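name: query_chain
kind: protein
chains: 1
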Amino acid sequence: MFLATSVASLHAQETSPQDLQKWIAEDPQYNQTMVTLYAVLEDYITRPQPRGYVSQPFKSFIDAPNAFAPMLQTAMSGLPRWQNGGPLPDKLLTLYQAMYPLDSTCDVLDLPLPQSLNDAIQQVVDVSGQLVDRFNKSFTDADAQFLRDNHGVVISMLQVSPWGGDLPDQKIAILEQYLDILDQADPDLMTCSAMLWGRFLDEQWQLTLQQLMQAHPDAGAQIILQESTPFGQVIFGGTGNQNLLTGNILFFADLGGDDIYALRTRDAWSGLPQLVIDFAGNDIYESQEPGGYAAGIGSTAFLVDHQGNDTYHGVALTQGFGLMGVGILHDRQGDDEYNANSMAQGMSLYGIGLLLDTQGNDRYQVQGLGQGTGMTQGVGILSDLSGNDSYLATGLVPTNYGTPGLSDSWSQGIGVGVRDITPGGVGILQDENGNDDYRAGSFSQGGGYFYGLGLLKDNGNQDDTYLGARYNFGWGAHVGMGYFLEAGGNDYYKTRQFVSSGLSWDLSLVLFEDLAGDDLHEAGDFSLGASAHRSIMIFHDHDGSDTYLGTTPATPTQGPPNLSLFLDTGLGENRFDGMKSHAACSINTALGLGFTLVMREIPTPDSLHCNEEQAVD
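structure:
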């Protein structure tokens, strides 16, 4: 048998477990399966897709298949270093252009430090004029009016129908015209606007502004200075507590105090930017309608809160949302709470949405389409750099599978498209440290759906908990890509149903990695390295004594060829339901290649058990 021969060679050479992936990659049957799959995927992925779209992440995989995992790891590894060098929007645009190459050029000059508060106001007004002018040049009057008139209808469709099949033809026509207009827009609208407005996020510029405000004789009052401009209100607040109940805010900066901001959204598709900077205090940010704050819709909107235990309440299109624009919410310090209904907390469509929390023990709650979700040509990111955090996506709609009590969340590091109508984008959920808790409904936690790419990375060595329902913890469906990376700790993975912990369905590519720790997987059927309908699934647990319950790993099922790899290369004691061997293979000519290897030591040839009836020489 070819695998037995390979194992014999491995054992004779005393190869270490770290060389396991290289050994498998050199196996002839593995390569034969992969070559067949590459041909199928390349043929399908490079055809004109809905809206003429070719998936750049998929194309990168086809061009360099051996670099699949390194490519994803590189994309993820650069994310935590937000504070190192360069303006934040520039770093976001670099990431965006790696996913979606743009023919965009933008010359942005350095912004002089303000010499007075009036000087700062004039700088904000000047840049606002440039952004509105770019918006007006990017759309005809008719197109801009169509976007405004149909904005609510389109958002409602996207919120409830990622499946696509339930939309009436009339609404589909509106959605496609809306997206056609965005397709034809000048890419400089997003990139240059973000870079121009992003200069106000410069650390030295904000420090200078804070010093000017502190030196003002009314620094202890509620309001230091307020001025109306052609683009909205500019307000400088002092250290007194205040309630801000206005919707036409262009720029608001506040020195301190425990403030309540009941912000209304700026007019959608007006090109008007917004900037909110709060230097201190335990603040509450509220919005009772879609939008409100940190929502860049055809423009840019940034909110920076420097310190304090803050609470963020929103409805939708908020807390780091970008639609043909860039929305950034950056909370630098404190134990914070984020609540929203949908399309929030790092979510985007044709743009960039970022929620960045630098420090503190934080709670995130959304119903769906949030916490690092990207739709068509969007990159949505939720990045939390420290603390013991909880992420909850309660469910946007009852599950399409009809299971009572379960819901579909479409959240926590996913790229999702509307099937057969418009492709998915890139969604990233990244947590760098702490004991974290992730809970969601179906279609969540590191997965891609209909040309989407989803990534979930927990980089801490503490113990984390993951709870899902169906399609969770590293998955792909209908030409999706998923990457799930857990760096360490004794982690607990539990599904309410099945189809979790590493699965790939219908022309999809998925990698699940857990690098260390004694982990418990309570999975169900079609989990732990399962593949179907010409898909590739690689599950790799690198170290620890692990328990796998509920299914047999590495199961290729219907729709050949498929590739399922389940690798546990640690030297700990592992426990399985229904599988006793250290290594096993199932090569089924009707289904594809499934390979399981669990190593407490380098396997010997006679420890490898294949299905002799279906094994292939």
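note: Confidence is low (pLDDT under 50) at residues 1-21, 600-617.
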